[in-house]
UniProtKB/TrEMBL annotation:
It comes from Candidatus Scybalomonas excrementavium. This is Phosphate transport system permease protein. It is found in: Cell membrane. Residues 77-288 form the ABC transmembrane type-1 domain. GO terms for biological process: phosphate ion transport. The chain crosses the membrane at residues 12-37, 73-101, 113-132, 152-176, 268-291. One of its GO terms (cellular component) is plasma membrane. It comes from the Bacteria. The keyword Cytoplasm does not apply. The keyword Transmembrane applies. GO terms for molecular function: phosphate transmembrane transporter activity.
Length: 305
């Protein structure tokens, strides 16, 4: 009787886990298929070219089924790229510094206090980041640079950098901890200083994990909508510099999708922008898997050698 119960439980939970995994795969494929169906309507139903969508800045889609508007989303695409690139440039050095401090300089203090504090940032809602950015950061930028207003690429980049900081820091710290201690002992035995061990031994060995953290942080930045929309200025124009306002893909979708007529040209082009974000996210996932596979191949070659 007990053996039958154990057999039933084993196969039941195995089947349940398999079903959950299959459901996630089917759900992902369904979302992709739905976005393809909706997003391609801009090109198939209304006859616009991909060149117009990606490279034109003329934005005047018709909120109706008659079509004939202009769907150049270059401003939004450039806005997403510029804000995310700036956020990555700001967050990466701080993330590296925090991760190295937690793992190499003060591991006890880092594990007990600093890492829990860093991970706490992940649980803060994005609207809180946006509200703090709008009420504190935007006025500070306005007063510091003597601007009419402080809504800008710089404000969006700083807010995004704070949001992706814990992701990059946590993954980088895990990558540094995964480096075998024998590497450090061997380097110290050869007379290397702590900085030389960190810079010339630990960081190169953890390179693939660090790159994974950077890609995950960039993916988080591309997908953020609310916090960015509150500080970027939402201006349909290319920014002249980082102090100029602009707009991006997520902010445009979040603000305009609710008011666009279902099935109309305006609605379709917003779905096309959503499809673009979905494809960008898939691209980041493939990059992470590529980095992981390279790391596994190097480990196998090292063991075989």
């Amino acid at each position: 009787m007990e053996r039958k119960n154990m057999f039933f439980k084993e196969h039941f939970f195995k089947g349940l886990i398999t079903a959950c995994g299959a459901f996630v795969i089917v759900l992902t494929l369904a979302i992709g298929a739905f976005l393809l169906y909706k997003g391609l309507g801009t090109f198939v139903t209304y006859g616009h070219s991909p060149l117009e969508f990606f490279f034109s800045s003329d934005w005047a889609p018709v909120d109706g089924t008659e079509g004939g508007g202009k769907v150049g989303a270059a401003v939004y695409i450039f806005g997403s790229i510029s804000t995310c690139a700036l956020a990555l440039a700001i967050a990466t050095p701080f993330s590296f510094g925090a991760a190295i401090f937690m793992t190499e300089i003060a591991p006890n203090f880092g594990n007990k206090l600093l890492q829990p504090v860093v991970e706490l940032f992940v649980g803060i809602p994005s609207v809180v980041y946006g509200w703090v950015g709008m009420t504190v950061l935007v006025p500070a930028i306005r007063d510091l640079f003597h601007l009419t207003h402080g809504y800008s690429v710089l404000a969006a980049g700083i807010v995004l950098s704070v949001m992706i900081f814990p992701t990059i820091t946590t993954v980088t710290a895990d990558a540094l901890r995964s480096v075998p201690k024998d590497y450090r002992k061997a380097a110290y035995g050869l007379g290397a200083t702590r900085w030389q061990v960190t810079y010339q031994v630990v960081l190169p060995a953890a390179k693939n994990g660090i790159l994974t953290g950077i890609v995950l942080g960039l993916a988080r930045a591309f997908g953020e909508a609310l916090a960015v929309a509150m500080v970027i200025g939402k201006t349909r124009a290319f920014p002249k510099n980082i102090l100029s306002p602009t707009n991006n893909l997520t902010a445009a979708i979040a603000s305009d999708m609710g008011g666009a007529m279902e099935g109309g040209e305006y609605n379709m082009v917003l779905w096309t922008m959503a499809l673009l974000l979905f494809l960008i996210s898939l691209g980041f996932i493939f990059i992470i898997h590529f980095i992981s596979s390279r790391s596994e191949q190097k480990e196998k070659k090292g063991k075989e050698a």
